[in-house]
Amino acid sequence: MAVQKSRKTPSRRGMRRSHDKLKSPALSVDPTTGETHMRHRVSPDGFYRGEQVIAQPDFDDDDDE
After folding, report:
1. Does residue 50 belong to any structural domain of this protein?
2. Domains held by the chain: number
3. SS in 3 state form for the chain?
């Protein structure tokens, strides 16, 4: 098993960790609906690149039992 020869300084540790941060997700606005969504994914209302790819189900409100 590899063992380090000398202790890493806090500066070197920080330099190594500088690339470990999380990047913010790339967001996009759908041209048809104006919905904000993650890139290359279908928006919550079923649109992708300006076209509706998932049909929204029709809900009837008269079934109040």
Report:
1. yes
2. 1
3. CCCCCCCCCHHHHHHHHCCCCCCCCCEEECCCCCCEEECCCCCCCCEECCEECCCCCCCCCCCCC
